[in-house]
Amino acid sequence: MTSLIRESLDLLNNGTPFALAVIIGHKGSTPRTSGSKMLVRRDKRISGTIGGGLVEAKVIDACVDLLDRPKSAIMDFNLDQEIKAGMDMVCGGSLTVWLRSFVPPYPPEQIQVWQNLADLEGKGKKALVVTRITADKIAETSLVAEQGEVVGPGMLPKALMDAAGENRFTGPGPVRQFYGLDEFIIEPLSRPDTLYIFGAGHVGFQLAKMANLTDFSCVVTDDRAEFANEARFPHAGEIRVLDDFSTAFDGLDIDGNAYIVILTRGHLHDQTVLEQALETDAAYIGMIGSKKKKKQIYGNLMEKGVAPARLEQIYSPIGLKIKAETPAEIAVSIIGELINVRAENKGNPS
């Protein structure tokens, strides 16, 4: 999975014009929510999506029209009104979309800001991406790192920096603010949603492929190098081969953007991994297996002092109930459950 930040950086380095469209506000029922992004090239090829349909088609056309020079634009869509105009949509909300064009020659300092942004994203670091839009619709982007360091052109307003220091911009989507005559779009750069797969067997193999398709960064862990390797998992962000599952979480920084799936080849290994997983702040912990296996492992862990209430938070048997049988079908049931949990965690309507 290549992020839009990395794709944007590649286009900047190649001197290629492009535009970004970002949903910066939504109300009611909409196909995508605030923070959804789409990259548009001059030939109308896209990466990412803001929801498809005729709204997306209009945004693509508008992005291409902006590619005569660097500038910004805001587009508002009332989907109720669009339905009345004959759009093939069943949503009933409204969207505000920010469009920004990038046209060469690109100043070195602009490329450097995006390089820093890509580096921060790759390291899983948090930051604020602050874009100042002047009265003549020119956009300039700066980064505010966790420590308050600013990278980018110009000075940011003190009121904005004070608000950043008080963590007022930590929501899931962009914030639109006005300071004086200038408008600012403030986007939080958060850690990616990362799927940690413990077990590189048949189900893990299929699940990693689906994680790539559904915008999860993926870390695969096993104690068998013949299973956990780049040839089998070309889309995984990281592959870890252990000597023993007792060290499964050594060196990992698990937070609320982490999703843990336990698929090892044996009950003992599953229990070893699960016991360590329960010490983390992961958004999701799921373990494959039957109800009998679950009962046995839970009993063992309660004897070791794990609270029953904590065990109730585990998703086991794992996956949605779709009568899955094959490894691919089981992986579909798991990824469906992960998508649902992720949406709930982000406050998105089901």
TrEMBL record:
<dbReference type="InterPro" id="IPR027051">
    <property type="entry name" value="XdhC_Rossmann_dom"/>
</dbReference>
<protein>
    <submittedName>
        <fullName>XdhC/CoxI family protein</fullName>
    </submittedName>
</protein>
<feature type="domain" description="XdhC Rossmann">
    <location>
        <begin position="195"/>
        <end position="338"/>
    </location>
</feature>
<dbReference type="InterPro" id="IPR003777">
    <property type="entry name" value="XdhC_CoxI"/>
</dbReference>
<dbReference type="Pfam" id="PF13478">
    <property type="entry name" value="XdhC_C"/>
</dbReference>
<feature type="domain" description="XdhC- CoxI">
    <location>
        <begin position="12"/>
        <end position="77"/>
    </location>
</feature>
<dbReference type="Pfam" id="PF02625">
    <property type="entry name" value="XdhC_CoxI"/>
</dbReference>
<dbReference type="InterPro" id="IPR052698">
    <property type="entry name" value="MoCofactor_Util/Proc"/>
</dbReference>
